[in-house]
Amino acid sequence: MGSMSALMDRARHRISVDEYHRMADAGVLSHEERVELIEGEIVDMAPIGSQHACVVNQLARLFTLAAGEDCLVSTQNPIRLDDRSEPQPDLALLKPGAYMARLPGPEDILLVIEVASSSADYDRGVKLDLYARHGIPEVWLLDLTGNELLVCRDPVGGSYLSIAGPRVGECVRPVLLPGIGWRLAEGKTWSVPF
User: 171-187: per-residue pLDDT in tens?
Assistant: First the structure.
């Protein structure tokens, strides 16, 4: 007999992105609910606190002003990775384009940024692995609780080969948007980068 975990994994019914959207259209899922679809499972997202909201807003402003026409800054909007996963990263820097008829997919994404406090372990594990498996070229994890920024690059075989933690004064530049730089000022922590 298998372990309880293995039995439960087999017993799960995973849904598709299309089914997930039909549930929302039918009112089973409210449009106000903070959920995302990860590997066919509907996952509750943590409420957004003031610190998290402030950092996301400041990063959106920084990237929007710095990037100009080089990319589209998408804030807390869904991206479709495949038929079973539609996460909502805090920020996604996208190739310029019109996304009216479809959600951005892996081929459209230049950088994903996840800002975490209570969800740091989930973001470092489940979300980072998910992004790597789908070839997202670069992910930044900004852990507000641990005052740490992780820059994850080079997705191969479902994980990132390069994971670095920049230091105070170091300028961080997205690989695919090298004209944009973010430098941590002296005397500040990653949780209050502005």
Answer: 899 999 998 888 765 54
Query: For 133, which DSSP code?
Result: H
Tell me if 152 sits within 8 A of 160, measured CB to CB. Answer: yes
Task: Count H helices and E strands in the chain, helices first.
Answer: 5, 10
Report pLDDT digits (tens) over 5-63.
665 556 678 989 999 889 888 888 877 788 989 999 988 888 888 888 988 998 999 89
Q: Where is 9: in which H helix or E strand?
A: helix 4-11
Which of 168, 172, 107, 102 shows the shortest CA–CA distance to 141?
A: 172
Q: Which two tokens stand for residue 77?
A: 């909007």
Instruction: Count Cβ atoms below 10 Å from residue 28 Cβ, excluding itself.
Output: 11
Helix (H, G, I), strand (E, B) or coil at 143: strand
